[in-house]
Amino acid sequence: MSEKMLSAGKGALFLTALSAVSQLLGFFYRVVLSRLVGAEVMGLYQLIMPVYSVILSLTAVGLTSAVSNLTSQHLALGNRKAADQTISTCLRIFFLLLLPIGTAVILDSDAISVYLLGDARTQLGLILLIPCVALTGVENCHKHFFYGSGIVRPPAIVELLEQFVRTFAVIALLMMFLPQYPERVVGLIVGGMVICEIFSSCTLVILYRRRRGALTGRGEEGRVRRRRIFSIALPVGLNALLGNLLGAANSALIPQKLVEGGVDRSAAVSRFGVVCGMTMPMLSLPIVFLGALNLVLVPRLSRACALNRPAEARRLVSQAISAVSLLTLPCMALMVVVGPDLGRAMFHQDGVGDYLIPLACVMAMSCGTSVLASSLNGIGRQRTVAAISLLGGAVQLGFTLALVPLPGVGMGGYVAGAVVSTALELGLCLWQTVRATGLEIQPFQWMAAPGLSALLAGLTGNLLFRVLKDSGLSPVSAGLGTVLFALILYLAALQAQGVKVWETLRLDW
């Protein structure tokens, strides 16, 4: 690969910029989609997406992590031939796994839709998920090869273009064929996903072939290569599988448990669609930096371990935690203030504002957990991450089973479980990261300073937002003014506490 690698800091900034555009486009797509199909179909769509995640975790997730980690290690040691061998082996393993799993899902789609998901209207979407997974696996293997190599531009640009293709394809299919029965509408949505995956997988394969270059180095013996791949892929894949199985069980059980509590089936699916298909995606809108940060962090930590540089690993983890706290906490505070009006304006659903405060806390803790889990993956502690994720998912499932069926509790039981399970995962991931790296905990830098500043900005912004609306301004104008003032206040509060924001976010990795 003859292109000069970007530095990790520039790579993170580049990925964040593209992620911002992609996130906005994805949010626009979800808004248009929810208006076209309604809350009930969004609920059906949310039912099948955990199945998509489960199949990917059985086949591709662990392998893509192996591609990223091993590529970074091989290139750090100058062995390009071994890096190329890694992606070829991972692709072969992926298709060997997908063939029997995909066949079983297609043949048993009726039983899965009725008995596991609890709604026969998901069958067509389940069948169409299999070609989507096949294309996604090819795409992700090549994408993580680029990220592991430190070359972020090609996969990031393709991912952004993929969003455009998916938005156009899904909306075009719906505009052409609506109105339809709910099952067919879900099938049209997944069909649009297949179209966009065809584009992205083919594009990345072509780019990989063009940038392959000379395969220098001695390569790696097949038996050793497979052992190293499985040593990473198995714990990561198992972690993803168990987590996604628990997530799928939660998704399937929530509407059923709401019905047990006396809610009509259609209303139950709609409530599930509002919380998981509208509120949570809305809260994730400002978190555009997290995926870029994790994609850069994992191979950099893997490289530091390969070169035996523990001090560098500790610095990377500490800086990543600080950056996530500084960026996440004010975003969640402001989303609590403007979220109800934003939800009504975007989705035409009043229920989007329900449970906004606890769900914002869940999102903030999830971001911290994500960067800590990525840190553990980068230093080779995949099994630890798997165990923590499994425990958190089990706690969430327990809350769903115990509280959601109770009259008057409903979705509040799911939200309570999300708060408790996410807090548990965050604490355990932090503990294990400190044990594994010798990291020194910095409560002021990581939590106290950004937390107090975000609280001040949120409370002041809430008061200002109400005053501006009462004075006759539209919710949009009032929201923009509030966000601008709150961000300035947040930065001023950090400055007053001696926090050097630019040095923390500079990402001079």
Describe this structure in words.
The protein is an all-alpha fold and 509 residues long. 83% of the residues lie in helices and 0% in strands. The longest helix has 52 residues, at 8-59. 52% of the residues are buried.
- How would you spell out the order of helices and strands? HHHHHHHHHHHHHHHHH
Mean pLDDT: 82
Q: Which shape, going by the Cα principal axes?
A: globular
Number of helices: 17
Computed over alpha carbons, the radius of gyration is 23 Å
The overall strand count is 0
Q: Could you say which structural class the secondary elements and strand pairing correspond to? A: mainly alpha
Uncertain ranges: 1-9
**Major β-sheet profile:** none
% residues in beta strands: under 5%
Straight-line N-to-C gap: 21 Å
Fraction of residues in helices? over 70%
Please provide a brief summary of the model.
This protein has 509 residues and is mainly α.
Lay out the secondary structure:
Layout: H1 8-59, H2 61-76, H3 80-107, H4 109-116, H5 123-149, H6 153-177, H7 182-210, H8 222-260, H9 265-283, H10 290-306, H11 310-347, H12 356-378, H13 382-403, H14 411-437, H15 443-470, H16 475-496, H17 501-505
Helix pairs in contact: 1-5, 1-6, 1-7, 1-8, 1-9, 1-10, 2-3, 2-5, 2-8, 2-10, 3-5, 4-5, 5-7, 5-10, 6-7, 8-9, 8-13, 9-11, 10-11, 10-12, 11-12, 11-15, 11-16, 12-14, 13-14, 15-16
